[in-house]
């Protein structure tokens, strides 16, 4: 689960990490009031809260939001009001959101912190070594977007033991970043704090881009991104209300209520499967013709397949549906019944190709054949995709 | 010969009394798996599915000599269940449970380092040696004994790969699901190694997917070997769509964005036979078979 910057900063603060003084605002008036509360005079930083990095380089779709990005430094209370008004209710597009962007419904207002130096710090899990790994890069010459693409060797990777970074490791990072002497203790505490937050919150990723170094050598997290582990949310009831439905597409949200995984793309074929790997394999076969994939997961039954078809049918891009069910302990005949039910209820007005394999496959195919519906049967995945692509082309 | 387990292996089931476990373990016993006991804390002393149930692993091992364990316990109990199994020096744990918190898995991996115990999973359909032993939830009827080793990350694609070996008229020496979670106990390298040591395995089918660099790691191992069995490899996924992500750390950790095309190139450069479509596996198997000298 991704969370907003201001929420991530609450987690960091609880582990002794310093962040600029800030408050969240939902309206322009509120933004002006909290700005005055934070500091008697500017500058302030207005930060659009969406689940994405690269907000500064992003752009808004609406004209009223102006040409500036999602992070704005302002100097007067009037500017706070005008810019908050412009950004709120507008759609911010970044390199990480995709072309549809995200609606900005709240703004984090912060005091501007003057720093002498800044750098990138990330912490994430290296799956191959199964270790939490610290990532650091100096952002003096390039920002991290550039470094990742052009000079990835300029990023220092430090695999961390389960007990966290050692003093020797933070010393190594300090000399890598060329930080001055008085930053040393401050940095060690900072990096320990990030690690403690990572473990305590059950994070999968923490990214501070950038960390600022104040004149007195202290570290301040100017930005913060945290991804939390969904599997561990049961241990953190306090984060449950941070789940932001506005960040999730409508059909994705509906699908998630049934425990399905749903993703949309730009093609015209909808696809239902019962496994993550199957979804990926079907994507490989469909390529750009995929409009969406829905994984109804294990324990698929009559009701689940019906719910899945109904959600997919509301996607205006979908002109044909391919269903690929691999029955291990799932009974294919029950799935066939579900398809017939849905066809009767919502009417099948587009081509459907079904591929069944596994338990009670033959019974299932008989059910479909006897139903007198325009359903095409396929033997393999490859054939199923070829047939649905053909059927959709024929229909056009 | 087979890898990981055979019909004589003494199998324990942790969490045996649950509904899912009862169903699947019942079928495994019918299949011929030598299940000797179960462990469910608080239910020690009862007989379930015809085998004694114990309160803890240590006691169960002492009484029955169990060597491997299959885990069906709830996600929040996985860490303590595996810890017990490691302390009792079981040689293999197969964790069927999914949604284990990543932090718990990091701690489990730490416990496993330097121990006697090998972990398969979590979130795996398990291990099956056709006609001998089933440690997991595979549908039995699609499996046939033969000489192809199958290893896959995804559950459903494991079945698909098995069907491909059947289409080629060949059976499986063993089928292993590595599991589709972020942190897993065993990797492609571990299984490629076991299949290479196994005389019964003549060729290997490997099914990978996006996420992580496990396939690349397998390719590097394979490339370094002098005696190599044919490996047919399929990678699930597509590079044609935009994938939404937050932050840069994910891409940095994997040394750049992972693509299907990139993975395929690394595998084929290492000498593996890479197919674009999972339904091409049977054709490749048949063409290997016609070059019979490559097979024992």
Quick summary:
Chain A is of the alpha+beta class. Chain A is built from 12 helices and 19 strands.
Protein topology:
The complex is a heterodimer of chains A (396) and B (296).
Chain A: H1 5-13, E1 22-25, H2 28-38, E2 44-48, E3 59-60, E4 71-74, H3 77-87, E5 91-93, E6 102-103, E7 107-111, E8 117-126, E9 131-138, H4 144-150, E10 156-160, H5 167-177, H6 183-200, E11 203-213, E12 219-221, E13 225-228, H7 250-257, E14 261-264, E15 269-273, H8 276-286, E16 290-295, H9 302-313, E17 320-327, H10 332-346, E18 352-358, H11 361-370, E19 375-378, H12 381-395
Parallel strand pairs in A: 15-16, 15-17, 17-18, 18-19
Antiparallel strand pairs in A: 1-7, 2-4, 2-7, 3-5, 5-6, 8-9, 8-11, 9-10, 11-12, 11-13, 14-16
Chain B: E1 11-14, H1 19-31, E2 35-39, E3 47-48, E4 51-54, H2 57-64, E5 68-71, H3 78-87, E6 92-95, H4 102-112, E7 118-120, E8 126-129, E9 133-136, E10 145-152, H5 155-167, E11 172-177, H6 188-197, E12 203-209, H7 214-223, E13 231-236, H8 249-253, H9 260-269, E14 273-275, H10 281-290
Parallel strand pairs in B: 1-2, 1-5, 2-4, 5-6, 6-7, 10-11, 10-12, 12-13, 13-14
Antiparallel strand pairs in B: 3-4, 8-9, 8-11
Helix pairs in contact in B: 3-4, 6-7, 7-9
What can you tell me about this protein's structure?
The complex is a heterodimer of chains A (396) and B (296). With 396 residues, chain A is an alpha+beta fold. Chain A has three domains: 21-111, 2-Layer Sandwich (Dna Ligase, domain 1), CATH 3.30.1490.20; 117-240, ATP-grasp fold, B domain (D-amino Acid Aminotransferase, Chain A, domain 1), CATH 3.30.470; 250-395, Succinyl-CoA synthetase domains (Rossmann fold, 3-Layer(aba) Sandwich), CATH 3.40.50. Chain A has twelve helices and 19 strands. In chain A, helix 10 (332-346) runs parallel beside helix 11. Chain A is elongated and about 80 Å long. In chain B, strand 10, helix 5 (155-167) and strand 11 (172-177) form a beta-alpha-beta unit. Chains A and B meet through strand 8, strand 9, helix 4, strand 11 and helix 8 of A and helix 4, helix 5, strand 13 and helix 8 of B.
